[in-house]
Amino acid sequence: MSLSLPDSVVLVTGGERGVGAGITRSFHKAGATVVTCGRTPPDVPLGEFVQCDVRDAEQVDALIETVRGRYGRLDTVVNNAGGAPFAKAAEVSPRFHSKVVELNLLAPLIVAQRAYPLLAERSGSVVMVSSISGTRPSPGTAAYGAAKAGLNNLTASLAIEWAPHVRVNALAVGMVRTELAELHYGDDAGVAAVGATVPIGRLAEPDEIGACAVFLASPMASYVTGATLLVHGGGEVPAFLSASDTREN
Question: pTM of this prediction?
């Protein structure tokens, strides 16, 4: 068994930038054929790009039919499309919250559901890109954190419903240094300061997240389903440690 996937067809939603780009590159390195999708075509696509808003079931149906028509098969779906801007929960409209949940929870369900028949033919897998925001408080992105918590539960539920035909797993991703990192953490000094709060000492690189996605899709994870893999560099150092005068140095 290995992480080589030369005969696989992989669909990565939101696979042209940020974490998604790292996932696309990682599957390419493993030898897979990668189809990416998004609402806006990239200038230079990393994968075989298909324009699609994954919140729209009809567009998702067209996406899956395009994959079927081009390749006749689908081995893995990576539900990566998602995200949310910082917004205080009491200050935004209910429509804002609905859109965040729609993108981060309902859209992955729709994509997985529509892809299921093709995946089942190949004993394939689904990899959900979740977040540590789904396992801890998420102030400023409350709807996003709640949606990711739901995505973790969705992962476990689909894994049971679809076993043994399709494996379903998730990545609980921590902070990642993408092209948009400065918007969240400031300049290089800010990124470094935030990275220093992570036990491993830095933010993740997108390709490191991609390597974990490849693992979950590979034969090496053939007995792994219903799992949420923490990819967060050790998470967060408990705040009480910095306040305690009894901790070991």
Answer: 0.92
